C-alpha cells in the first residue's frame, strides 16, 4: 500500500557560498533545478513534490515563478533563518500535511527516481518501522536521499539546538542518543568516490559532460547504474571524480 501523504521536499537556495545561484545553472539549456524536478516527476510512488526555499526577496520570487511555470510547486519561507533548513522542512511539512518526508538536495540533478522508490519500499518493509531511512556511504554523492517521519522531524525541530543539526536537517534524527529507529539502504558497490552533486563550477562541468552521454545511451529514464557506466567509460570524468573530496554536508 502507498504511504499516506508522502511529500518529496527539495531543499534549495540561491545564496550558496561556494557556488551562488547554482540551482539556476544551465544544463543543456535548462536550469539545474528543473532537471532535478523533471527527474523527480518519474518517482512511481504516489507523492507530492515541493521545493522549499528561503524567502530572500525579489530573486527568490523569480525562481519561484520559474518553477511554477514549469508545473511544480515552490514554497518560499521567511519565518525561519535561511540557514535553519530543519525549520524550513518543519514548516513545509506542516503546510503540506506530510506524514512521511523524502529529503532531496537541490544540487542533485542526476538523482535516480528509482532509488527513491526503492528507499520508500525499503522503509515500508522495515519490521521495526524505522523513523529514518538513509543510504549507506557507498552510494554516490548525488544519488543519496533520505526518508523520515513527520513525528521525527517535529521532535528534531523542537529539540535540536546545534547550528550544524539545524543546517543539515537529519543528523539529530539519526544520532543514536536521541532514540529514533533508523535504517540504511545498502549499495551493491562501493561508489563512495563517485560524486555528481553540484557543489562547485567544476562539479557542474562534470555533470554537463555526463548528461549528453546519458541521454544518448539511455534516454531520459537513465538510472544510477547508467551514470556509473558512463563515468567508468570516461577516463577523464572518472579521474576528476576520484580526485574530488566528498561533500560532507
Task: Lay out the secondary structure.
Blueprint lengths: L5 E6 L14 E2 L2 E2 H9 L7 E7 L3 H12 L3 E5 L7 H12 L3 E6 L7 H12 L7 E4 L10 E4 H10 L3 H6 L2 H4 L7 E4 L15 H18 L5 H9 L2 H9 L6
Parallel strand pairs: 1-4, 1-6, 4-5, 7-9
Antiparallel strand pairs: 2-3, 6-8, 7-8
Helix pairs in contact: 3-5, 8-9
Sheet/helix structural class: alpha/beta
The strand line-up of the biggest sheet is 5-4-1-6-8-7-9
Question: H/E series, N to C?
Answer: EEEHEHEHEHEEHHHEHHH
Tally of individual helices: 10
Low-confidence stretches: none
**Relative strand content:** 15-25%
Instruction: Give the overall form.
Output: globular
Q: What is the helix fraction of residues, given as a range?
A: 40-55%
> What is the rounded Rg?
17 Å
Total strands: the figure is 9
The separation of the N and C termini measures 33 Å
**Overall pLDDT score:** 94
- Main sheet specs: 7 strands, mixed
Structure in words:
The chain is α/β, with parallel strands linked by helices and 249 residues long. The protein contains 10 helices and 9 strands. The strands form 2 sheets. The chain has a 7-stranded mixed beta sheet, with helices on both faces. It has a two-stranded antiparallel ribbon with strand order 2-3. Strand 2 (26-27) and strand 3 (30-31) form a beta hairpin. The chain is globular, with a radius of gyration of 17 Å.
